[in-house]
Structures are given as structure tokens and as C-alpha cells.
Amino acid sequence: MEVQQEVSVLPPLKDRSTLSNEEILRYSRQLLLPELGVQGQLQLVRTSVLVVGCGGLGCPLAQYLAAAGIGRLGLLDYDEVELSNLHRQVLHGEDMLGVSKAQSAAQAVRRLNSSVQCVPYHLQLTPENALQLMVSLMYDIVADCSDNVPTRYLVNDACVLSGKPLVSASALRIEGQLTVYNYHGGPCYRCLYPVPPPTETVTNCSDGGVLGVVPGIMGCFQALEVLKIASSKTSSCHQQLLMFDALTTRFRSIRLRPRQMGCAVCGDNPTVTGLQDYEKFCGSAATDKCRRLCLLSKDQRISVQEYQDIVGRQALHILLDVRPLVEVDICQLPFSLNIPLASLENRKSEHIQLLKDKIMEIKQLMNTEMPVPVYVICKMGNDSQKAVQVLEQMSGTEVENVTAKDVIGGLMAWAQKIDPSFPQY
Fold first, then answer.
1. Where's the active site on this chain (predicted)?
2. Residue 378 known to be catalytic
């Protein structure tokens, strides 16, 4: 199967008035529903849906839309299948590692229902191609299954400018959210979030983790809302935010404020009349990969190779691991001292005392009053940079003088460049 690398106009779906005998048998259990029936099914087979992101949300969404008989599915994702995806991205298998997610998802969907037209797009959604996808009338409904803020703004603005309803969901850790934007006079994403959140406050699955079944649940709810819109049944989520807590297995619904007349894109006098640079607008990359912060100067950081040399010379120092305990339980360097970043930031007394004791121990071994060298490490080198800043604030006041430096790239760089046997997660 060829992957659609460029956006091109596809022929419209056939305006059919009857179902074949095979379709009647395939969809018989939902045809029996008065809420759907034959006419509702015909509306489904005439509907095209663009799925932005073939990951934890997009996989169950695409699976159930195909099973229900949606006429065309556009499956868009720039990424390739990785081993860490498989606990939640259920359309992909071990045999698809390294294959584009769009192609992998399309192959799985075609195995499930070969009558559904699947169009895989192995590309990044950008301001240059988003409107072409939607304005060309190839897709009637858009489902946002992305995992980053710039793409959310891009998809929202493109849907508003092209007049497409947007079914949006998110999942992180053990919680999920769902709403429908730009539908029946309801708000768009910018109505609720006119200003993007600070970059350092945004967490994704790569950073914060996710229980695989949670995006599965939310992806199924996305599919439900798409099917309701496609079959002309009003979505109940166009002015509601559905929130799911997996720990308590509870749902709650929050009524959203209506469309804002002053909204920059859907308001009465919009200032956003075309798509823009959303990475610049949000101050972050349009990716669900672990973000890379750059908070320190070059002389405040060392490479994993430089740190390996320090270990090899047996130079006295402290290796401070600032990851949460749940990550330390996965793997750690045996000679590290674990004090989570949150404990440093909150000046947690027992952990500060632990650090003081370790500094005093090293000073006695060094038999000097020189500042103790502290090398700070985390998973990817982000929290460790924040910790260096905190230690610099504390040095000479709350703790003895120290010289703190961040280990660039953290433990994942250690695993990739120094010790291939060290676990990656």
C-alpha cells in the first residue's frame, strides 16, 4: 500500500441510496437500531473522516469507525511505530516496528473492513497542507488525536476556517478528556484557550506516562461522537467537556462557556484569517516526543562522556538523580543519590538534610573546603536543568557551597552512548 506523501484531491464518495446484501449482513446489528437504521448507515458510508494522529487515541477511533462503515478514513501521522507504543496503540503490532504509523493503521483497518477507503498520510500536519486537506471537501469531520499543543491550535484553526466539526480528545496518566468544537454554534478551542500554556507546564505521554486503556476508552468515545455527527444525530459534547478518571472509574461533565464573540479565529471580528506558525505561537515543537529544554549555559552542563570520565577517574562527587521514585524503581545508576526535583523545589526538610549529609561526607573525604561537585541527572536532561537552578539558589545558604552541573541527555543518553545494557523507557 502506498502512503500519501502529498495532499491531493480525492474523488467524492458515491452518493448511494441503497446498501448491498453484504453490507446489510455486516452492519445488521446496528441497522436494527431505530437511532441509526438504513438511512443512518447510508449517511455513514457517504462520510469521510480525517484522523490526525494514529496513536493511542487514533487507533481505537479508526478501528471503530471502520467497523461501523465510515466511507473514507484519512489516517495522518508523521511518526513510525516504536516498541513503547504497543501497550496502547492497538492497531500496530511487533511486525510493524519501524513502519509509518499511518501505513500500519491503514493496513490494519483494511484487514478489518476492506470496503472502507483508507488514505494514509505519512506526513506532518502543517499550515501549508491543513487547509488543503479540509477545504478540498475530502473530509467532512476531523478528529484530533494529537498529543501536543501546537497541533491542537493548528487543527482547530483549520477546522474553523474550513467549517468542519472537530472531535477532540486527550489522555494522560490515568485521566482523559473529550469535547466537540466548532459544531452547532458551539465554541472552538481558542474560545476556551486563547493563549497557549507555558511550555514548562505541558506534559505528554512520553514525559508523564499513560495507562494504555485510558486513550482506548477516550478514542472509543471520539468514535461515538463522530458516528453521531455523521449520522445527523446531535453530539452531546459540543458545549460539554467530558472528563474521565480511570482510578475511580468515574465520568463527569463540565458545561463549557459558549462561543466567544471576541475569539481570534471564530469571533465576530476574527484576527486569525489564515494559518500561522503554531510552534512559534506556542513556544514548543509540534511533536509528542519528550521536549528538550535549554535552561542552562554551556559551562553548567557536561556530556555523558565527560561524566563517564569523572567516574573512571574516581573523582569524588555527588551524582544527584532528581527523578520521581516511580522512575527510579524502573532503573538507576547504583552510585546515585535520589532526591526528586519536587522535593528540592519545595525544600522538603528530610531530603534537604539527606543532601546536606551527603555533601558533608564528601567534604570530609576530600579534606577540603572547596565546593563539592554535584552532577545532576534525570531521564532526558530537562528536570536536571531545573534542579541545577534550584541548587544554585540554595548553595551557600540552605546547603553547603556546591558546584552543580547538569548531565546532558540524562539516563537515556547514558544508555545510548555509554552503556547499551542500561534500560530505556
1. 205, 378
2. yes
